[in-house]
Design brief:
Number of strands: 9
Largest sheet: 9 strands, mixed
Mean pLDDT: 96
CATH architecture of one domain: 3-Layer(aba) Sandwich
CATH topology of one domain: Rossmann fold
Bound molecules: zinc ion
Low-confidence stretches: none
Order of helices and strands: EHHHEHEHEHEEEEEH
C-alpha cells in the first residue's frame, strides 16, 4: 500500500463524451478507468478535467498532488497558458509528472522538453510489442521481458524529444516501426515519465501490465529526491584570505 502518495489524474475528457466508439470503451472517461485501475495500489487518487474551473488544477489541488498524470489530445490548445505555467512550476518544485500517449503534444510536455515533441503515427489496428530495455529500473518492477497489446495506434521514430535520462521501454509495431515508449527526465526537482500506449479507441488502460507500469511510475516519481537545494547569495564556508596587492 502507498497511503501517502497523492495522485491527480488529469484528463481532457472530450472523446469519451462526443465519440460513441470511445464512449463504449471508456463510458466514464479515461480518468475513471485509470482511477479504478490504480486505486487498489493504495494511492490517494483524485481526478481533474479540462472543462472544470481552472481545468481542475487549482493552486490547492496542485499543492496537494505528489504525482500528476496527464492525458490530452484534441484540445491541447484550450489548456490555459497560466495553468500550464502553474503545473511547470510545481514540477520544478518536485511534483512528479506522468505524460500519457498523445500528451506528447500537450503544452506542458512541450514546455518541459523544449522541443517539438513531433513523431510519426498511424491508426491501423496493429499489434504493439513493448520490450523492457532497463529491467533494473523501478518502473519495470514485476514485468516480463516483453508484453503485447493486440491493437494500438502506431507511434514511430523519430520522436523529437531531448535524449532521455533513462530509456525503460521500446515498442515494436506490426507495420515495422519502433518507438521509445517509456522514457524518463528530471526537470528541476521533478521527475517526469512519458509512457506511449493509450489511444482512446482501444481498451489499453484496462491491461494489467499497463496499469502496473503506471503504478510503478507513480512510486518512482514520488520517491525521495533528497535535500531541497538552496539558491541565492551565500556566505563562504571557509575564510577567504584577502589578496594583498604588492
Ligand atoms: Zn492516439
Amino acid at each position: 500500500m502507498n497511503p501517502n502518495i497523492r495522485v491527480t489524474i488529469w484528463n481532457e475528457f472530450r472523446h469519451e463524451r462526443y465519440n460513441p466508439e470511445v464512449m463504449k470503451i471508456y463510458p466514464e472517461g479515461i480518468h475513471r478507468a485509470l482511477q479504478n485501475g490504480l486505486s487498489p495500489f493504495g494511492f490517494e487518487v483524485s481526478t481533474a478535467t479540462l472543462d472544470e474551473p481552472e481545468h481542475g488544477l487549482t493552486e490547492a489541488t496542485l499543492g496537494a498532488t505528489d504525482v500528476l498524470i496527464w492525458w490530452g489530445h484534441q484540445a491541447h490548445d484550450e489548456v490555459d497558458d497560466g495553468i500550464v505555467q502553474r503545473v511547470q512550476e510545481r514540477v520544478l518544485q518536485g511534483m512528479g509528472l506522468i505524460v500519457l500517449h498523445s500528451g506528447h503534444y500537450s503544452k506542458i510536455f512541450k514546455k518541459l522538453m523544449g522541443t517539438t515533441c513531433a513523431l510519426k503515427w498511424r491508426e491501423a489496428d496493429e499489434k504493439e510489442r513493448l520490450w523492457i530495455v532497463k529491467p533494473t529500473h523501478p518502473i519495470a518492477l514485476g514485468l516480463p521481458e516483453y508484453f503485447e497489446l493486440d491493437e494500438e495506434e502506431m507511434y514511430g521514430e523519430f520522436f523529437d524529444v531531448p535524449d532521455p535520462d533513462e530509456l525503460v521501454l521500446v515498442s515494436w509495431f506490426e507495420g515495422g516501426e519502433v518507438f521509445r515508449s517509456g522514457i524518463t527526465y528530471t526537470r528541476g526537482q521533478g521527475k517526469i515519465f512519458y509512457f506511449r500506449p493509450g489511444h482512446e479507441t482501444y481498451p489499453t488502460y484496462y491491461q494489467e501490465p499497463i496499469i502496473r507500469i503506471i503504478a510503478n511510475a507513480i512510486k518512482w516519481a514520488a520517491s525521495d529526491r533528497g535535500a531541497s537545494p538552496f539558491y541565492g547569495n551565500v556566505k563562504p564556508l571557509e575564510i577567504i584570505t584577502p589578496k594583498v596587492t604588492p
